[in-house]
Amino acid sequence: MPTTLDCEVLCDLYGSQSVREVFDSRGLVQGWLDAERALAGAEADLGVIPQSAADRIAREADASLYDLAELRSGIADSQHPLVPLIRALSGRCGEDGHYVHWGATTQDIIDTGLVLQIRAALVFVRADLDRSVESAADLARRFAATPMAGRTHGQHAVPITFGLKAATWTEQLRGCSQRLEEAQRTALTAQLGGAAGTLAALDPDGAEVRAGFARRLDLVEPELPWHTDRARFRDLGHALSEIAAAGERIAAEIISLQATEVGELAEPTNDRSVGSSTMPQKQNPMTCEYIVASARLARAATGVLVHSALHVHERDMAAWATEWIALPQALILTGGLLEKLAHVLDGLVVETEAMARNLGLTHGRIMAEAAMMALAQSIGHERAHQLVTAAARRAVAEQRDFAEVLRADPTVADTLSPGQLAQILDASLYLGLAREAALSAAARAESVVPASVETMSGRHPS
Length: 462
Known about the structure:
By secondary structure, this protein is mainly alpha-helical. It is built from 21 helices and four strands. Helix 3 packs across helix 9. The longest helix has about 35 residues. The C terminus is likely disordered.
């Protein structure tokens, strides 16, 4: 399968080696051969073709037996993606080769082969997504009550806990897992409709052959051919796009919080890590940056699926052929993204001292809402808002602590005692539901069932 992700030098910065191997040239050809083997087996079960022919086809349906360069040359000459393999398989089967591809059309085999590759790729994608959910949930649980500055519009807002932040990561990833599971259920569907969806070439055994074909591949049997109804793959693309979006958000947030001036988080490193070729002191968040880059590339690939919805009549190669590149690329990139994200979340360095230190950067002004709400009980919301706004601006202009300015205000002094004000301005006491929300999200994450290799990878077709 030709992709732009095969560079021997850079490929591991973007894609997952495991997923990439699923979509290599041998994997592509093997998917087609597995479909041809299952078709022959289903037909032999019903007496449509001789059992001896099905057995011979099964023996020859091994991608290692075929010269990929010859197939490539044949495709270039014929401009047909599958016929060179059909001819090569038929030739290897001798007289039994007459029964290769019996009653099927090219799209049946290519679609089904791609579905088999998707199933194999999703084993790795789901495993790393599950790891990411678990690691994010662990962070939410461990730091449920650890205060840090909440930031809105890039500025300090009110105190939150790091556990709450990690909980939002957990919940978004958990949602991605649910979407992927739903998309997987429909995507793993066999394709067998014949020339234009009628299976007339297999009449009167078409329905039974289709059922046997799907059963042998352990795929869902379609009620109708989906040659031009590509919603299954668009749904899968949407699920992958949402994973990319989640990965980009989390990685970008870690990049921001790893900035020298913040220093609250850091991605894991080892003795071989290099931050800069010329500045030895740097520890650049390069893994997170590759996650962001891969996420953007993955969404570009899934965007092809969204924008190729128009498949005309019963087959449309112009729209269909885009999937052969876009889906493998999206899965390879998403696989690489999740592999890195799971690694980062599992080894994330959390600097709680920096979080505590940064809470004090505004010299108490991060507690302005708390002061306003306490005063509002006596003087009303708008008057309290105006008073606290003026106090915050005065504190900045005069380079004074916020608490000091508030204590000097006559209205505040008449309303709140020094002890009450000190308690109101204590960030650790103004965390609301942060701890409970973090622990709740971590508990919900436990419902994510780890992907089963046995059920997802697909047993070798009989």
